Amino acid sequence: xxxxxxxxxxxxxxxxxxxxxxxxxxxxxxxxxxxxxxxxxxxxxxxxxxxxxxxxxxxxxxxxxxxxxxxxxxxxxxxxxxxxxxxxxxxxxxxxxxxxxxxxxxxxxxxxxxxxxxxxxxxxxxxxxxxxxxxxxxxxxxxxxxxxxxxxxxxxxxxxxxxxxxxxxxxxxxxxxxxxxxxxxxxxxxxxxxxxxxxxxxxxxxxxxxxxxxxxxxxxxxxxxxxxxxxxxxxxxxxxxxxxxxxxxxxxxxxxxxxxxxxxxxxxxxxxxxxxxxxxxxxxxxxxxxxxxxxxxxxxxxxxxxxxxxxx
Length: 312
Hints:
Radius of gyration: 27 Å
Distance between the termini: 81 Å
Largest sheet: 5 strands, mixed
Number of strands: 5
Order of helices and strands: EEHEEHEHHHHHHHHHHHH
Mean pLDDT: 89
Oligomer: single chain
Strand order of the largest sheet: 1-5-3-4-2
Helix content: 55-70%
């Protein structure tokens, strides 16, 4: 049987406290409000009743716009009241099919979903179970878990940033995750200690704000530097001094650090990996007794000439 659409005063509706979408950007609301003012609400809101109150399951942005426009009635579909766990699962499933959410508010609601499952089942959900409950991939769940592991000060700072229009946001979740991963890599290789870890993270975020660092994935060069130390290609004391300057010098960039320490070694290491793969490929070619085409022979001759110049 088809769902029955009825009309209700939007002032009688309340937002769903379990909605993972906590941030509503004003520019997006303004765009939707203009559309509703011209065409009305084309897709009914989905609601449920709890005692004498009505709560939203789907359609909070449409509801907010209706209130702003002073609409007397909005179309709704009334659904049975869900349990807390069902409510969270439905909110994830409904909104996951729509516009992407901001990751941090989603992570906070994912934490609630995990807690509710644990209380009901007497155990924590596996990663696969949690992904299924939230209609998310396991990769997304792992990323959201990394956000939850951030210190509270960074989560609070990100939430504050998210309330700005997107064009004015200077720091994003990706910035914080990238600098966190870089700082952890350096600490794990004993290039910095725990006291320097947060100083480095803060310094890098400040440089993102001041545009000294412009590329979101630039901190990955610090991870590569840490690997060079682990391989014995770079002295730990040299890396430590460079990171110290990165923290103290407001104009010293990650690219500067990389160039001053490990750029050549990192390039050579990558070249060695390519050579190893190419050698293995050519050996397989010989083992299979494939006849080399004229095109392959020509490419190998050119490669041989480059190699000859390099090793001379």
